[in-house]
Design goal:
By secondary structure, the chain is an alpha+beta fold. It folds into two domains: about 5-145, Jelly Rolls (Sandwich); about 150-230, Arc Repressor Mutant, subunit A (Orthogonal Bundle). About 45% of the residues lie in helices and about 25% in strands. The strands form three sheets. The protein has a four-stranded antiparallel β-sheet. A four-stranded antiparallel β-sheet has the order 2-7-4-5. The radius of gyration is 18 Å and the shape is globular.
């Protein structure tokens, strides 16, 4: 852990929404008891079924979040950039990790194990509120994706998912660009790449997004929201 890594982690943790109310008291304990690790593209940050639960925070880079599906397939259900976090603990009746997290590019991650959370809680019991808040956000996101799949036609579903991904990819609000290939986006919304490409081309023509190589910039979130709610 270098001073530069710690300074970057301090900066990211200080402005994420899920920690904002508690940031002044908890940033330093999280850094003191957590572990900053650098991983390369394709390396696993955690695996579905792991017993070693706790917090996992993206400080730099990007990760893909995958879950096991019927037919022994792994499907991508989300991704995260700087400030994105997964929170889960076995201390209050939880189970093993529910998702695999794979680095999509060189990444700096903060890992805070259950035992480290316990040490932080000795002086800062509000850490458990933070974990509970993260679990709630994850549940809300999962329910929103389920509702999209049931209620929305493909075009509206894609617009809604772009907005959801933007909120989860960069909780700091510093970026409006999703570093995500269109093939992976198609997988996440359950559509063919050809269908997704057609809708994205239409969104770009309307000035709602800008398409680049491996990235999608959201130019008009309000316009996308109107489509999602139409």
């Amino acid at each position: 852990m270098t001073r530069t890594d710690r300074d970057l982690a301090r900066q990211i943790l200080g402005r994420v929404a899920w920690l904002q109310d508690q940031a002044p008291e908890l940033v330093e304990p999280l850094l003191a008891h957590g572990l900053l690790v650098r991983l390369g593209p394709g390396q696993w940050a955690q695996a579905e079924g792991d017993d070693d639960t706790g917090l996992l925070v993206v400080i730099e880079g990007a990760v893909h979040i995958l879950c096991q599906a019927p037919g022994d397939r792994e499907v991508m259900v989300g991704f995260g950039g700087p400030g994105a976090a997964l929170g889960q603990t076995m201390r209050f009746g939880g189970g093993p990790r529910l998702a695999t997290v794979l680095c999509a590019e060189p990444s700096l991650l903060l890992k805070v194990s259950d035992s480290a959370l316990g040490r932080i809680a000795a002086d800062h019991p509000q850490i458990w509120r933070v974990v509970a808040a993260l679990v709630f956000l994850q549940l809300r996101g999962a329910l929103m994706m389920a509702a999209e799949s049931v209620a929305l036609p493909p075009r509206q579903r894609l617009a809604s998912r772009l907005l959801l991904l933007m909120r989860t990819f960069d909780p700091t609000g510093a970026s409006t660009t999703l570093r995500l290939a269109q093939q992976l986006l198609a997988e996440m919304v359950g559509l063919t790449r050809k269908t997704v490409n057609g809708y994205l081309a239409d969104f770009q023509k309307r000035g709602l997004v800008r398409l680049g190589y491996g990235e999608i910039e959201l130019l008009d979130p309000s316009g996308l929201r109107r489509i999602a709610e139409s």
